[in-house]
Specification:
Order of helices and strands: HEEEHEEHEHEEEHHEEEEEHEHEEE
CATH architecture: 4-Layer Sandwich
Number of helices: 8
Keywords: Hydrolase, Metal-binding, Signal, Zinc
Protein name: MBL fold metallo-hydrolase
GO molecular function, one term: metal ion binding
Structural class: alpha+beta
Number of domains: 1
Helix content: 25-40%
CATH topology: Metallo-beta-lactamase, Chain A
Shape: globular
Family: Belongs to the metallo-beta-lactamase superfamily.
Organism: Acinetobacter lactucae
CATH superfamily: Ribonuclease Z/Hydroxyacylglutathione hydrolase-like
Oligomer: single chain
CATH class: Alpha Beta
Number of strands: 18
Length: 320
């Protein structure tokens, strides 16, 4: 019996000794298909970043910590924030809403093009790119090394947004402490748009326009020409909200919380309050580029001052 125990011990020890820690440091492919009426919406993960807590305004540190603790969102790296984009397939053509950061924000981002292909689509089949606004984490993904990532696509942004970043006269309206960041963004915007402008594949839209069944919604504040897009199918609606929200904890529990890179903080807060009220009242779907991947879900109204993010229920089968 003693010999048997020793033998078993040696066998178990040898099994343990042969076990190696997994070497993979990345997760499975960052895409998720969601069937929305007659459309298939594929959420695409560009990557994850961590925002410094002091970027969020109108809350003191104790208030921030209390909310983050409530949502188990305390992280020594900062406030975890996804960067997402959304590919919409209507069965005839592909429309991309926002495009990620490519190489503009470092190696932690830049996976949109790769994840489109992993999801089973071809970059050349994307016919339309709708940009909620022209910050680098939304526009840089359309170009790489001076070439169009989506060679057959027409890129759209609001005319007011294009004017703010592309018209040299706009620099005069930028506060001195924001000018360096503004000029850096201008450089990124021009680089991203250049291959499309060269072939006249960059166009602007106006308030009230409809592009490929997407209704344009004025949600200015984060930037002067920031817009969201509403898509309808059967009795459902989904709003591609853009950057009206950057935190699933702070800005839902305290929606009057601003963020440092809002161009007009008061306007951005009013837009968020208006949109949260409308979306929760009408039970519309939301697709958000900075809420936890896949960034699709609903807004629940807790009370007159607070909301809650309700993510979609993950399903391993795509409905048709």
């Amino acid at each position: 019996m003693k010999k048997l125990c020793v033998a078993l011990g040696l066998a178990i020890g040898s099994i343990h000794a042969s076990y190696a820690e997994p070497t993979a440091t990345s997760q499975v492919p960052g895409y998720y298909h969601h069937q929305f009426g007659n459309y298939r919406i594929t959420s695409l993960l560009d990557g994850t970043i961590y925002l410094k807590p002091d970027l969020f305004k109108n809350l003191n540190q104790a208030q921030k910590t209390k909310i983050l603790t409530k949502y188990a969102a305390v992280n020594e790296k900062g406030i975890q924030t996804s960067v997402n984009a959304f590919l919409v397939d209507d069965g005839k053509s592909l429309t991309l809403v926002d495009s990620g950061a490519a190489s503009c924000f470092g190696p932690q981002l830049g996976s949109i093009a790769k994840n489109i292909e992993l999801a089973g689509y071809k970059l050349a089949d994307v016919k339309t790119v709708l940009l909620t606004h022209l910050h680098p984490d939304h526009v840089c993904g359309i170009a790489q090394n001076g070439k169009a990532v989506f060679p057959n696509a027409t890129v759209y942004a609001h005319e007011r947004e294009a004017d703010y970043w592309l018209n040299p006269a706009s620099e005069k309206t930028v506060p001195a402490d924001k000018k360096e960041s503004y000029l850096g963004t201008v450089k990124n915007v021009k680089t991203a748009l250049a291959p499309y402008q060269a072939k006249k594949a960059f166009k602007t839209f106006k308030d009230g326009d409809v592009i490929q069944s997407f209704e344009v919604i004025d949600t200015r504040g984060h930037t002067p020409g920031h817009h969201s897009f509403r898509l309808k199918s059967n009795d459902q609606q989904i709003i591609f909200v853009g950057d009206i929200v950057h935190s699933h904890s702070l800005q839902f529990d305290a929606p009057k919380t601003g963020v440092d890179f809002d161009v007009n903080s008061e306007q951005a807060i009013n837009t968020r309050l208006k949109m949260f009220a409308e979306i929760s009242n009408k039970q519309q779907w939301v697709a958000a580029p900075h809420l936890p991947f896949p960034g699709i879900g609903h807004v629940y109204k807790v009370n007159a001052q607070q909301y809650q993010w309700i993510p979609l229920y993950f399903d391993n089968v795509v409905e048709k």
